[in-house]
Design a protein that fits this description.
By secondary structure, the protein is an all-alpha fold. It has 16 helices and no strands. The chain folds into 2 domains: 1-192, Growth Hormone, Chain: A, CATH 1.20.1250.20; 208-439, MFS general substrate transporter like domains (Growth Hormone, Chain: A).
Length: 439
């Protein structure tokens, strides 16, 4: 009964966060449209994306340390309040004066910092209130909500913008924060009993060092982190190159269909995982479903028909939430509660830090390596042009297929790793790997 109550508490908390997430996604889409319409500059839009990602990554280690040092519910409340203040600031500026780009950049940086504070606190609270046997279902719902917001928010915002304009979207977003705050205030979260020496640490840098040391000594978790960092690195290239590939062989209608296919598949995958909970042996789930995703990802790029491509895209992204959920359960089950904030924050920072690099490398690698290689008169174009096509189209396909094969190979190799297999044992990590300063 206690485990059921814990899952009920999670559902209440999750519902509030989902409402807030949808509101924030509406604002994110509306601001992107506002920037492109007012300035006509893709560069300004790209700067907004950088403001959303880089500050959060830089502050993640500090946020994680504070999550372990302070009250986690308080951290989430502070995060929601900071986001609400940024949203309100944009609204007031837009209402009383002329909204400038630096106003938007400032608000986006505040949202990025708030997100860095909320992620480790949210994940650690889920591990506190949900029994281990229900963690798969809980994390499946979280995966689903993340994907659902990317599907639901753009069309709703597109419908509402002509009628209520950006000001109306901002009001909806601001009100949605009250849902998150209300759910946090209602849900009871048990305290974490840490030693007095931990609570009285003089330097937050020591806390961060403990988190780094914990990861360094837990080789299996470090390999897990390496695997997901590589997957994110590969998917970063896909994020940049998929759209020009689709537009080179079809039109914007097909592009919209493909992008919807990605979102719908991830929502359905999250829903299935929330109902199922995942396999008993979670490491097999991570690499088994990762292998399926990577194989389907590899086959996408030899397809020249949009419908056939969509089948492999759907399968690849449908199984991503399965592996992500299994991974999250392992981290929540194996990492001690009083260090989860630091470890989860570092995990997020490392796993996501390679994506901006793949964004920056996409164009140079395509323009200077793969497109010349697949020129109709080049060796690659002559031997592989029948499979991939020639020119930029063929270069994109060859590049992404090579990345897919790397993902497949990594999934197979790590699935046989002895230390990783031990994570399926029903026990916490050995005490010997916990830093001395952590109780």
């Amino acid at each position: 009964m206690e485990g059921y109550k814990g899952f009920q508490s999670f559902l209440f908390l999750w519902g509030g966060q989902l409402g807030s997430l949808l509101g924030s996604s509406l604002t994110s889409f509306a601001l992107g449209v506002y920037i492109l319409q007012k300035t006509g500059s893709v560069s300004n839009f790209a700067i907004t994306l950088l403001c959303m990602s880089i500050p959060g990554l830089l502050i993640s280690p500090f946020a994680g340390a504070l999550v372990d040092k302070w009250n986690r519910k308080g951290m989430m409340l502070a995060s929601d309040c900071l986001s609400g203040i940024a949203t309100l600031g944009i609204f007031v500026t837009l209402f009383f004066s002329q909204l400038q780009l630096w106003h938007i950049y400032t608000a986006v940086i505040m949202w990025s910092i708030a997100g860095a504070m909320q992620f480790p606190a949210y994940q650690a609270i889920v591990a506190q209130i949900v029994e281990k046997k229900h963690l798969g279902r809980a994390n499946g719902l979280i995966q689903m909500s993340d994907a659902a917001s990317s599907i639901v928010a753009p069309p709703i915002a597109g419908i509402l913008l002509p009628f209520i304009h950006l000001q109306g979207i901002l009001i909806i977003d601001f009100l949605s924060f009250f849902l998150a705050i209300f759910s946090l205030l209602v849900v009871k979260i048990p305290p974490i009993h840490a030693s007095e020496s931990f609570r009285k640490k003089q330097s937050i840098l020591i806390d961060i060092k403990d988190g780094i040391q914990y990861l360094r000594l837990n080789k299996a978790l470090l390999w897990f982190l390496t695997y997901f960092s590589l997957a994110n690195f590969i998917l970063g290239f896909e994020n940049v190159l998929l759209q020009p590939l689709i537009l080179s062989i079809s039109n914007t209608k097909s592009l919209g269909f493909v992008m919807s296919c990605i979102g719908v598949s991830m929502v359905l995958g999250g829903l299935v995982m929330s109902a199922w909970g995942g396999p008993k042996r979670k490491t097999r789930g991570v690499f088994g479903f990762g292998l399926i995703s990577s194989i389907c990802f590899t086959f996408i790029w030899i397809c020249h028909s949009i419908p056939v491509m969509c089948i492999f895209i759907f399968l690849s992204f449908f199984f991503l939430p399965f592996g992500n959920t299994c991974s999250q359960v392992i981290w929540q089950s194996k990492v001690e509660l009083n260090i989860q904030g630091r470890v989860f924050a570092l995990r997020r920072m490392i796993a996501m830090s390679l994506m901006p690099i793949s964004y920056l490398l996409s164009a140079p690698l395509l323009d200077h390596v793969f497109t010349p290689l697949m020129d109709s008169h080049a060796l690659g174009g002559q031997f592989l042009g029948g499979w991939f096509g020639v020119g930029e189209n063929g270069g994109i396909r060859l590049f992404l297929m090579i990345l897919g094969l790397i993902w497949v190979l990594t999934s197979v190799i790590l699935s046989f790793h002895k230390e990783i297999k031990l994570l399926d044992e029903d026990n916490k990590l050995k005490d010997s790997v916990v830093p001395a300063s952590v109780s």
